[in-house]
């Protein structure tokens, strides 16, 4: 009579053990709420926040191989918020993003098979991003618990028993204090040298902020923004910082941007040396230097005396100066040396039949032998490029150009008047481009009468010590 109840109790106990074994011996999906400390942390203290502040944190998931019931190879574990959990009064679970683990690859145990050694685990590649809203009343240790649903895709074998009955959940705690405005730190007003075209590239590394409730601290902003160009002069910089609860603190300081750096000159000419036959000097041109400046994009450059000016005989210093918009200047100089070289002078002694007259008359068709001694700067010349040219009187058109040759101590040429259609010509002798002397040639009158009528006049006297005219 007493054995049956005992047997029934034994059967129920054994059944309970088997049920518990079934729930324990299946894969475990665990949520880790603390990504800083190692291992699986089911709870995490988030810190202190302002009333009603939005708080964000991440959750990581790990699938452990356990027991004999398993997620099938090739399946993906889908994890999402079940909508179930505990929330403190005045707080809220605002959002929880879904994530996946898998697909499950080789090395995972099949159903009814024990887990290999070492026991495999898989951590999800992505994390669930959780957003909470803090209660609006100050307090400590407000607790949030988030429950997660687990599903498998595609459908597989014994999916309902693939996970242990241990819930996949995570809890967070936080404290709420009355919000305090953030603290803003700005530097004292300062002066700075310009370092870019137009001014100074703003660097607000001296601006910072702290906040009692926010972690990390809020980031301050300034106007103008960091990296922008602050112009020359005194500029007021306005800064502000706002915490997660919307409290704002403002501050400011002055930055005076100065430019005390002179421009840089380039292309300054080297010393220049010229000669001139004009005792009053000569015009000299040169390239104007260029200039660059850190702050002023277009500094002015000028030279004194200017290019193209007339430089007197001797040495003159030219000073070139670059000036920026702030009045900074830099100068460099070079010398222009002008040497006076007197021009060459030429003279001629006309020999018979021309003689030393200003005019020589002859009939047309006559060939006139011309003999002349030539002097350059008082020195008689027996070599050079010597020409005899005939130009119509009152004009500048050359009717005939003869090359003269030197022999017998004189330069010689013959004028064939039959080729000259006019009645009056200027005949000039030149040596190396320098005109040494000339006479007038009249054609058409009786030669003897013309000579008698012509009154000889010396046009160029021979130099002292020169040969006598014959």
Which CATH class of the largest domain is shown? Mainly Beta
Major sheet characteristics: 5 strands, antiparallel
| Large-scale geometry | elongated
> What fold name stands as the CATH topology of the largest domain?
Immunoglobulin-like
Helix content range: under 10%
Under the CATH scheme, the architecture of the largest domain is Sandwich
Number of strands: 36
List the total number of helices: 2
- Which structural class best describes the helix and strand composition? mainly beta
Give the percentage of residues in beta strands. Answer: over 45%
Low-confidence stretches: 1-23, 446-470
Count of discrete domains = 4
Give the integer mean of the pLDDT values. Answer: 88
Q: Round the Cα radius of gyration to an integer and report it.
A: 56 Å
How far is the N terminus from the C terminus? 185 Å
List keywords for this structure.
mainly beta; Immunoglobulin-like; 4 domains; 5-stranded mixed sheet; 46% strand
Textual characterization of the structure:
There is one protein chain. With 470 residues, this protein is mostly beta strands. The protein folds into four domains: 21-176, Immunoglobulin-like, CATH 2.60.40.2310; 183-255; 264-340, Immunoglobulins (Immunoglobulin-like), CATH 2.60.40.10; 346-453, Immunoglobulin-like (Sandwich), CATH 2.60.40.1930. It is 6% helix and 46% strand. The chain contains two helices and 36 strands. It has helices spanning 3-24, 447-453, and strands spanning 28-32, 43-49, 54-64, 76-86, 92-96, 99-101, 121-123, 128-133, 139-153, 169-176, 183-185, 190-193, 199-201, 208-210, 221-223, 229-231, 233-242, 248-258, 264-266, 272-276, 282-283, 290-292, 300-304, 310-311, 314-323, 329-340, 346-350, 359-362, 367-376, 379-380, 386-392, 398-403, 405-407, 410-416, 424-431, 434-443. The strands form ten sheets. Strands 1, 3, 5, 7 and 8 form a five-stranded antiparallel β-sheet that branches. It has a five-stranded mixed β-sheet with strand order 2-10-9-4-6, with no helix packed on it. Strands 27, 29, 30, 33 and 34 form a five-stranded antiparallel β-sheet that branches. The longest helix is centred in the N-terminal third of the chain and has 22 residues, at 3-24. The radius of gyration is 56 Å and the shape is elongated. The termini are far apart. Residues 1-23 and 446-470 have low confidence and may be disordered.
